[in-house]
Design goal:
Keywords: Signal. This is Lipoprotein. Helix content is 24%, strand content 32%. The chain is of the alpha+beta class. It has 3 domains: 111 residues, no CATH class; 98 residues, no CATH class; 100 residues, no CATH class. The radius of gyration is 36 Å and the shape is elongated.
Length: 372
């Protein structure tokens, strides 16, 4: 009888254990089901999706982490080189991606240049103009803030520093416009450029080796200058210029390793060409004086002068010429349009020095220059 009671008690305990286990299993299933429902309810129209579901992790704060980069497909992926991405976190209802990369955050000038060459704008466009962030292994980050209505970048932050993208964008455009107006000219039938030559009236060259590809203008934060690279069409020869802005004036320098542009050589070959052209057309050298003293062709026995091209006026794309009389402080000013091959006496408006029967008819530089 005692044996039967013992067996009955054991059966009751086993039954209660099974019932408890079943109840616990129901609780786990119920919790998982709630998570699935919550996940479904939190779905939104996100710009970044992953096909590697087995390697996605969703944390309690609704951040989705993608670690299977190999199988993750999105158009923004092409902006990262193979192996660069460590993981991606999708935050703020999966509308704000944070891209974790395998290197330190890039420097300020590289951030500026990725803005100038359109890289960040292309990334923003591929991300549906939703904001995004790139975070390096140094835990510093680049944040791109988009303007959905304007389809553009409104702000860029390098860690806590806001980059003045308006300033750098405006300056780069100013440099590019100045470069095209003064030093290079675009070929009408291709994307190549050729160097202007005022002495030859900026004539179109005949040979392929005279054409160059204009690379995107970049900014160097250390020298506070914009760097220009022109690659020759036919080989690896390249020409470099540096551009420095001062009160909205653009000054070009030949390639230099110095960060002090007071010691660098300023681009002036075109100034020399305009000087020579002006002299050839209007002056003769006085035999009894040095080469810097010139006489007017129309008044060879009168006053002597010196010619100096001192500036390119970007407001009207003309060279500024000063004519100084050697015997006193009298000066007069002229302009030259290399595209039109025309000289003007400075004034409001400028007065063209006209040509008749291949002989220049001069507007007198000074009234006392006229022969009696």
């Amino acid at each position: 009888m005692k044996k039967k009671k013992t067996i009955l008690i054991l059966v009751i305990f086993v039954f209660l254990g099974v019932l408890t286990a079943c109840n616990n299993n129901d609780a786990v299933m119920s919790h998982n089901s709630n998570d699935v429902k919550a996940s479904k309810n939190n779905k939104s129209n996100v710009q970044i999706t992953s096909v590697g579901n087995s390697d996605e992790k969703i944390s309690s704060n609704n951040t989705q982490t993608i670690i299977d980069i190999e199988n993750w497909n999105h158009s923004i992926k092409k902006f990262f080189y193979k192996g660069e991405l460590l993981k991606i976190e999708l935050t703020k209802q999966k509308t704000y991606p944070i891209f974790y990369v395998n290197h330190a955050t890039v420097s300020k000038d590289k951030v500026i240049n990725y803005y100038l060459d359109g890289t960040y704008l292309s990334m923003l466009k591929d991300n549906g103009f939703w904001n995004f962030e790139i975070r390096g292994i140094d835990q510093k980050s680049i944040r791109i803030i988009g303007d959905k209505e304007g389809k553009c970048i409104s702000k860029i932050f390098l860690d806590d520093e806001q980059i003045d993208i308006q300033k750098y964008g405006d300056e780069a455009k100013l440099v590019l416009n100045a470069l095209k107006a003064r030093l290079i000219k675009k070929d009408n039938s291709s994307d190549y450029y050729y160097f202007r030559s005022p002495y030859n009236q900026n004539k179109h060259p005949k040979y392929d080796e005279d054409f160059y590809c204009l690379n995107p203008i970049t900014y160097d934060d250390k020298s506070k200058a914009y760097l220009i690279l022109l690659s020759r069409k036919t080989d690896t020869v390249a020409t470099y210029y540096h551009a420095v802005l001062n009160k909205n004036n653009v000054y070009f320098y030949y390639d230099t390793q110095s960060y002090d542009y007071n010691e660098a050589e300023e681009v002036n070959h075109d100034f020399i060409e305009v000087e020579n052209l002006f002299i050839d057309r209007f002056f003769i050298h006085n035999k009894n004086k040095d080469d810097n003293n010139l006489a007017l062709k129309d008044a060879p026995n009168k006053f002597l002068y010196q010619v100096h091209v001192w500036e390119f006026d970007y407001s009207n794309n003309k060279y500024c010429i000063t004519l100084s009389r050697s015997s006193d402080t009298a000066q007069n000013f002229f302009l030259y349009d290399a595209d039109l091959d025309k000289f003007y006496r400075d004034g409001s408006p400028p007065e063209e020095i006209k040509c008749q029967n291949d002989v220049y008819i001069y507007i007198p530089f000074y009234m006392d220059d006229i022969e009696e």
